[in-house]
Amino acid sequence: MTSLESVQQTSREESPAKQAWRVRRLTSRRVWESQYIDRLRVTDVLVVVGALTVAQFIRFGEIQNDGVSAFLAYSGVSVGLAALWIAFLAIFRTRSPRVIGSGAEEYRRIVSATFRLFGVIAILSLLFRVELARLYLAIALPIGLLGLLLTRWLWRKSVAAKRSKGQYQTSVLIVGSRKAAVAMAKQFERSPGAGYSVVGMCLPGYEVKRDGAVTVDGFEIPVLGDEHSVVDAIEASGADTVAVTATEHLGAKGIRKMVWDLEKKNVDLVVAPGVVDVAGPRLVMRPVAGFPLIHVEKPQYNGATRFSKTAFDMVFASAVLLLISPLLLVVAAVIKLTSRGPVFYKSERMGIDGKPFPMIKFRSMVQDADKQVSALLAQNESEGGVLFKMREDPRITKVGKFMRRFSVDELPQFLNVLRREMSVVGPRPPLRREVETYDGDVRRRLLVKPGITGLWQVSGRSDLSWEETVRLDLSYVENWSMVGDLLIIAKTVKAVAGSDGAY
Predict the structure, then answer these.
(1) Residue 278 confidence (pLDDT)
(2) Are residues 192 and 132 in the same domain?
(3) 107 and 92 in contact (C-beta within 8 Å)?
(4) What pLDDT is recorded for position 12?
(5) pTM for the complete prediction?
(6) Do both 173 and 138 map to the same domain?
(7) Is residue 278 part of a domain?
(8) Contact 475, 455 (CB under 8 A)
(9) 3-state secondary structure at position 221
(10) Of 139, 164, 189, which residue constitutes the final position of a domain?
(11) How confident is the model at residue 503 (pLDDT cuts 50, 70, 90)?
């Protein structure tokens, strides 16, 4: 039986619901990407024109005497600036299929294109002594930049909604060893927001009777041949992207031939380097002796990077504490009036390099709650047993349950940030007994300050297993950046407002 015949037979045996699911998966990425990019282009033009129009009317809205000539002159300036702004967005590839829809790179390119444009304008005005109204530019820049970022965010929400329904997918054919291919397929299936749907596999040593299909998270993925059957498998599955993992079976000649074959079919090729939880900025491609080698740069924990993070922590924590000071006073009064004991609870946590410090929180449990832990260990709901979690912890007060739901009890930790014991964003602050169980790998969490929020906070909070919490913390330590911190803070606000995974 040929690969195509096996796919047709699999399709006949599936239920109508599953057939509909597979049809959605086979929808060409080229179609929806083209439509999506056209919509981005339209909203980008509307935002840029709108920002410059608002700036011009605020600065030159009152036309009096010689104001008419200034208004008309700046109308021409606005048209030219709008054309340049839109051109810079195109030059910096802010609508590239490689960055749209997910990740921070799309936002970074928009910010970079906008600031470079205004930098060029400032240099040209200085060189040619052209006087431009500073208020006009000061209004246009922030309005336009925020508008561009907001519309991209709204479009991403739309894409996420469609992907949750099986639309806007990139159909992927995985080529590689069975173990590596299944691992990749599981990651794609468990991250639907990424939009990668596996529609087939090509496994070395393929046998029709033995390898008809592979089941991943309840879905059967057909095996369409071995590593030499990629072209036929593309025709059978309708894939528009080939993902290669564990490339030892293909070799250099095999991959080169695959590149040439896919080029003719306008199918994308992606190669998994086998390095997990390492962000793109740390991966640098450098040709060495004719080989395209991927260099993994070392994480930056010191120098200017650490200084900028510390400066951001100080400014952000001071601003937040000043803003929420009335709320802190109200919460402190409610705690004092509703239960016995101190307003604040100081829990020993292990900070950077394993140094202990008292983490400050609003007391959400009864007094002497720590002494009751041993009696409740048998009811621990945490996978792995390192953490202690209970959905219905009897030690939590009524006020404490509300505070925990919206993370109000954690607000005093901004004082720890000002004391330079914690960071706004970082790994979860561990207990001493947790650190004592750390092996060599997990101890890398202690290379940076623990954070009030982090990847663990925006990825499920208390619903996460111990292994998943460790993986997210290590991923943060390996790849931390200021842009990443800002994105985590934004996601934290959403997670806290929805009380996701909080108990």
Answers:
(1) 59
(2) no
(3) no
(4) 41
(5) 0.64
(6) no
(7) no
(8) yes
(9) strand
(10) 164
(11) very low
Calculate the CA dihedral of residues 330, 417, 142, 96 and round it to 10 degrees: -120
**Claim to verify: residue 151 and residue 190 sit in the same structural domain:** no
* CATH assignment of the domain containing 207: 3.40.50.1980
The total number of structural domains in the chain stands at 3
Q: Does 229 map to a domain?
A: yes
pLDDT > 90: percent of the chain: 21
Strands of 196-202's sheet, edge to edge?
196-202, 170-175, 241-244, 268-271
Q: Is 108 helix (H, G, I), strand (E, B) or coil?
A: helix
Calpha distance 29→196 (Å, rounded): 10
Q: How many C-alpha atoms does 414 have within 13 Å on its Cβ side?
A: 20
pLDDT value of residue 341: 85
Domain extent at residue 123: 29-164
Contact 369, 449 (CB under 8 A): no
Q: Which two tokens stand for residue 242?
A: 């080939």
Give the SS3 label for residue 96: coil
Structure tokens at 500: 């996701």
Residues 429, 388, single domain; the answer is yes
pLDDT band at 435 (very low <50, low <70, confident <90, very high): confident
Which of 164, 188, 212 finishes a domain? 164
pLDDT digits (tens, 9 = 90+) for 58-83: 877 654 444 555 556 667 888 888 99
